[in-house]
Amino acid sequence: MKLYTYCKHCKEEINVTTKASDRGSLQMKHGDHLDLKCEECNGMNNKHVNDIKAEIKYSSLFVALGISILVTLILWFFIGAISTLSLSIPLLYWKIQSDTIHKFNSYMVRRKPI
Ligand SMILES: [Zn+2]
Predict the structure, then answer these.
(1) DSSP 42-92
(2) CA 8 to ligand 1 centroid distance, Å
C-alpha cells in the first residue's frame, strides 16, 4: 500500500512513508496534521490525515507476480500442473492490499473545528 497526498504549492504527488496501516493509527502516530516536505519544490505542507490517500503499490504487486511465475516454472518440473496454484499468490496479495486500501480510504478522522 502506498500513501500519498498532493503538494499545495506545485500539485505534485508527495509520498507518505509510514508503517501505519489505517488512518486511525496514522493519526495516533503523527497527530491530526502531518508536516510533509515536497520533493519537487521543497515546499512544506501541513496536511490533515484525511488528506492522505491510499493506493495499491503496483511495484510490489509486479514483484509478487514475477516471483510467483518463477516459482510456478520451477515447481512445474516437480509437481506439474498443480504448480499453477502458486499463481494465486499475487491475486491473494492484491486482494489483501485492496481490502486494506479500501479500509484506509473509507475511514475518515473527525476534523476538529479550528
Ligand atoms: Zn511541491
Answers:
(1) --EEEEEGGG-EEE--HHHHHHHHHHHHHHHHHHHHHHGGGGGGGGHHHHH
(2) 7
